[in-house]
Amino acid sequence: MFWKKSKNRKSFKCSKCGEVHDQLPALAFLTPDYYGYLNDEDKKNIAEISDDFCVIKHPEQTDRFIRTTMTLQIIDACEDLDYGIWVSVSEKTFDEYKTDFKNNIEGKTYFGRICNEIPEYRESTLGLHVNVVTKSNGIRPEIIPHESGHELIKDWEKGITISEAERRVQNMMNNVG
Ligand SMILES: [Zn+2]
User: Where are the beta strands (DSSP E) in 80-128?
Assistant: First the structure.
């Protein structure tokens, strides 16, 4: 697992109920899984990665990835569960997104594919089709999944329980390197 180390939980005053809650830490993947699969030499020689962009230059093709967020609503609590997920995009999308990145352009939609395996799902989450919608104020773009029968997409549509969210957070904590 390649989770990013999460910071301590922050509290926030809830706009829904007025109470103070502890925020769930984001479940953020450090890299696209395809970067994680590379050996150390290839990581050095054919890949470039930053907090928001990753490029892998294979002899036959170049793969491009951007960091996005995906939010699962929680049915029985006020918090949401946020994932930090890498999405592969076309060269055109990558170049345009990168050019606009500093300009905070909101509401642009790009097509991409999820490039992280979320461990809670029996069926692979790699390659799921999504739209990526840009946000202003330096907020990472948000995933809007395409309709599908995948459990992740059902969870995105319907939400998950707080106990399931806590279980996923605990699972991540146990797997942080
Ligand atoms: Zn609340």
Answer: 80-89, 109-114
